[in-house]
Amino acid sequence: MDKLYQQHCQECGLGSKPIDEQEAYPLVLSVPAWKRGFHEGVEKLSREFYFIEFSDAYGFTYKLLKLSERENHHPAILTEFGKVTVYWWSHKINGLHLNDYIMAAKTDWLAKLSNKE
How many whole angstroms separate alpha carbon 16 and alpha carbon 96? Predict the structure, then answer.
């Protein structure tokens, strides 16, 4: 299997199902800095990234926006002074899909390029 960050998101339609525990286990290991838990009643992946300058946090947010547009999979992002919080989940299935783990890995890759791992 390709590295997770090298994969691309697939269509997640209304017939898709959330990923089960057995499928999730190796994916969780691929994105160890991400927290898997319930937020607003939906299982999501979340991670905080820290920055010294607000402009760096904003720049990271903008790069993540461009990446999510290319993959047609969009997170919830909270950009604050010194911190960006990212949530990944699949809206159509109200839970986690392979796409969310792919995008978490891509977000980590983007952070690494920005020296904000």
Answer: 10
